[in-house]
Amino acid sequence: METDVQSPRGSGDEVVIDVSRVSKSFPGVLALSDVSIRLAKGEIHGLVGENGAGKSTLVNIIAGIHQADSGAIAIRGEHIEHYDNRIASRMGVSVVHQERSLSPNLTVAENIFGGSPPTHFRWIVDRRTRDRKVVELLQLLNANIAPNTLAGELSSAEQQLVEIAKGLSRETRLLVLDEPTAALTVTETEQLFAVVRTLAAQGVAVLYISHRLHEIFELADRVTVLRDGKVTATKSVGEVDEQSLIRFMIGRELHEVRHRRVPKTSANPLLVVEHLKSSPHVKDVTFSVNPGEIVCLAGLIGAGRSEVCETIFGFRSRHGGVVSIDGVPHAQMSPNKAMALGVGFVPEDRKDGGLFLNLSVRSNMMSTNIESVARHGIVRADLADDLALRFVDELHIVTPDVHQLVGNLSGGNQQKVLLAKWLARQPRLLMVDEPTRGVDVGAREDIYRILRELADNGTAVLAVSSELPEVLAIADRIVVLAEGVSTGELTGETTEEEILALATPRINEGGR
Amino acid sequence: MAIDETITGLGPASIKRMAVTRSPGRRVGHFAKEFGLSLVRSRPKLLVVLIVVLGAYMTIAHSSQFMTTGNLQAVAINATTDAILVVGMMILMIAGVFDLSIGSTLGLSGVASAMFVVNLHQSTAVAILAGLAVGAICGLVNGLIVVKIRINALIATLATLGIFEGITQLLSGNGVDQISNNYAAVGQNTFLGLQLPVWIAVVIVGAAAFAVGRTTYFRRFYFIGGNQKAARLSGIRVDRLVLTAFVLMGVLAGVAGVLEAARLNAAVVSAGTGEELTVITAAVLGGASLAGGEGKIFGGVLGVIFLSLVTNCLIIIGVTVFWQNIVVGLVLLVAVSLDRWKRASRL
Q1: pTM of the full predicted structure?
Q2: A450-502 confidence digits (pLDDT tens)
């Protein structure tokens, strides 16, 4: 661990927040381990890390939403015993979360002041003062928004600015911005940067979280890197470059190739996607998948990977581009039609779009092809049992019997049931979105083996994964997306660095 | 095992002495425990026990009034309308939706059918088909609102409840009576001691129980109710199926409306008022959940039989019928609480 506690701009003066040796675990996951971070008055501090490195957990702890299991938080030198979100806001900590939190059917002014607007006699809302303050706040942010506009009518950039205004509506000593520019254009980003710099000059400490490393270099004084819940570096930005930052983010020995990537060339790719567009996340995606090949879609969260799969599968409407299967271009699909063409789709969240948790293992497995276990429209229990038992056996699913509710199985076994549900259809193209999320190591290896066997038997596999080691472990070919655009393809020997370089949005590509 | 020992309160020495004699008792204890648990797990089983207990009590205590052909026929005919309706409601609830307008649909179908005879001088067969068609149209309207305009089923069918009732009143004022002897025969003729509507209900329930239990078509409703998004992503045509379920509900309400009009030889505007709540109560007692994905046709029918029996018992015992609502409400709360408890403790 390399640290540098001196703050370049802070002139060694007042520390606004001192998070020291904080750890936090969730059931089965150690989200943060011994994390320390310290922000001085007027400092802009970048926080970077891969997906799942613990950034959001740290933000939630600073916001007081989650309580640390161990460690201490001090604000302006005052150690706080039971730190929670009420104390946080009283001490001047304002957090602008990545997810929008505005109520769409309330006005901008109501949203900004929330539960504590200026009042007459404590009970009656003083609208005039409120609206004047709102106008002032929004002017500070260079935003031309009327206080009585409904939040739902704003563009996402405007909503972001209102979120920030909301954060600043109380006296703020520490402003936490979690991916604030994800929805902003270049111009709006520049405006936001100007605001952040102004605030910092006024003495506000800013914790700035972003996937876009160039923003860190442009804006921040210092940067802290998280990896697997640990701080791997705290540096002043002058000491590091993008390459070394990426190295701190990925850690471990790089250039590690787990699997011989042999792209299967084929004259007849099974799936060809050209200039695919699906608002708002997919802008221009082109790639192909050959039979017998595992292609991975890599990229950061929000790059549009899942949306690409959903669009191919017809669950999401396509706004442009061509999707060809077996060389035949197809108009807007529906899941039904895609399945008839031999496409299967294992969605990202098994609890949301994947499994029927209150139904049995057997029912889940027959959900995609109930006709196959029926004769003349009547379900045959023996055929359904055969199907379920075959997959329980083949995929080593641990369950007392096939009548067990899927909701009672472990994550890894649930994921296998989800896979089985699609394997039962013997798809020619199987799309798997985050195939090993929340799955233990053993099941993970099993799933990799299953995908490899599928490919070896001629199935075209399109996998989406946020975990770069996983991408490197299973892919024959890697297609990288950044902000809805396919930015490159990697074959043969490749590294996490190369993927990340393609996945990190570039400012000269114009934001969006 | 531990429980058995605590209950018998035997020390180690006596256990040894009783080792031989104890084992059958333990088996009975074990059986009782398992049986008790299975009642908590399954509301239909609980209903069967309640129905048997209630029936046995009435047979012993009030045999002269309860165990008469006339009374049992009355119980059966009273349960007929609800039994037909609960079939459609159960299917909707399995799919995660429900229909509050069934009472109005029933009333409208009955009145429309009767008017085909009285005002338009059509044959009984045509009038019956017209009644079913009106029910189907009501169901189609509900289904289209829910599926195409995507209005929540509660609000959509609450609105059509009023609309259908209004249409019925506009059509006929207070209703149509003295339909025709021919028409009345459909509801009043008996076969093996039971009126025709009872047999029709039996056939509908049997067919639906088979269809929902075994056919691919109806099994899909469990997937829709279990997780609608996953069902769509599994290639199930959710909208089409939900629409069919609403149409089926409408047709069944039409059947019930026609049979009721025929039985009374009069179509009353208020014939189905309040049916929706009774039927949903029966379905929930029988194992349906508002979230969807659960329930069986027989469960719903057991719910109907139970409610019908409770009413009958209260009348025979001479308790005011107002108690019926209280008893039914309490039973519903207890049944559903057991479910909560079961989930919380993962029995």
Answers
A1: 0.75
A2: 999 999 999 999 999 887 888 888 899 999 998 889 998 988 778 888 888 88
Residues B67 and B29 in one domain: no
pLDDT tens readout for residues A315-370:
999 999 999 999 899 988 899 999 999 999 999 888 888 999 989 999 999 999 89
Residues B202 and B254 in one domain: yes
> How far is residue A112's CA from residue A136's CA, in Å, rounded to a whole number?
12
Q: Which domain holds residue B30?
A: 1-36
Q: B226 to chain A: nearest residue by CA?
A: A356
d(CA A416, CA A395): 7
Instruction: Please report the ipTM that was assigned to this predicted complex.
Output: 0.80
Name B25's Cβ contacts closer than 8 Å, sequence gap at least 6: B4
Residue numbers in B near A375 (CB within 8 A)? none
B136 shares a domain with B31: no
Residue B111 belongs to a domain with what CATH number? 1.10.3470
B95 contacts B242 by C-beta, under 8 angstroms: yes
Q: Do B112 and B28 lie in a common domain?
A: no
Is residue B90 located within the same domain as residue B122? yes
Q: Which two tokens stand for residue B82?
A: 């609800």
* Nearest Cα residue in chain A from B230: A353
What is the predicted pLDDT for the residue at A31?
82
CB contact under 8 A, B234 and A347: no
Q: What's residue A273's pLDDT?
A: 94
Q: Mutate which of A306, A363, A367, A432 to disrupt the B interface (most B C-beta within 10 Å)?
A: A367
pLDDT bin (cut points 50, 70, 90) of residue A512 is very low
Distances (CA, A) of B241 to B151, B215, B218, B224, B289: 16, 14, 9, 9, 19
Give CA–CA dist A172/B271, Å, rounded: 66
B41: contact with A, CB 8 A cutoff: no
Low-confidence stretches of chain B (pLDDT beneath 70):
1-26, 342-347
Contacts of A347 in chain B (CB under 8 A): 230, 233
Whether B346 and A408 lie within 8 Å, measured CB to CB: yes
> Could you report the per-residue pLDDT of A271-324, keeping only the tens digit for each?
999 999 987 889 999 999 999 999 999 987 778 899 999 999 999 999 999 999
CB distance A359–B232 less than 8 Å? no
- Kindly determine whether residue A368 and residue B237, on different chains, have CB atoms separated by under 8 Å: no
B159 vs chain A: nearest CA distance in angstroms? 24
Q: Are residues B9 and B153 in the same domain?
A: no
What's the CA gap between A53 and A251, in Å, rounded? 11
Q: How many domains does chain B have?
A: 2
